[in-house]
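Workshop exercise sheet. Pairs work together: one partner reads the sequence aloud, the other fills in the structure field after running the prediction. Swap roles for the next sheet.
Pair: D.N. / O.F.
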Amino acid sequence: MLAPGKHYIGDVIRLAVNYSTAGTDVDPDGVTLSVMHPDGVVVSYAYGTDAEIGYTDTGDYYCDYVIPEKSGRYRFRWVSTGDGTTSALEGDFLVQHSAFFDDVPRLYGC
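Structure field:
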């Protein structure tokens, strides 16, 4: 889960996950991250294939996700595969509305 706060279009959010078995950090055979945008579009990244997924230490993976030009609720899902390490972790974050990016009529204008 991410720390509370305001997120805006163009911000970078670190989505991180830790994998462990019986209290010991482990590296799964495969790690993927899927991010669902507010409009339902899903983008996915795989560790070892996509540069978006980083690795800091045994069991610790991250993605420094750049928020695209869309406000609303984003959902993400980490999935690991491998003997004894198959699991999923889901979360979400809210991106604030921006009059500069969102496709909505201006309420105040010149």
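Discussion prompt: The chain has one domain: 12-95. What would you look at next?
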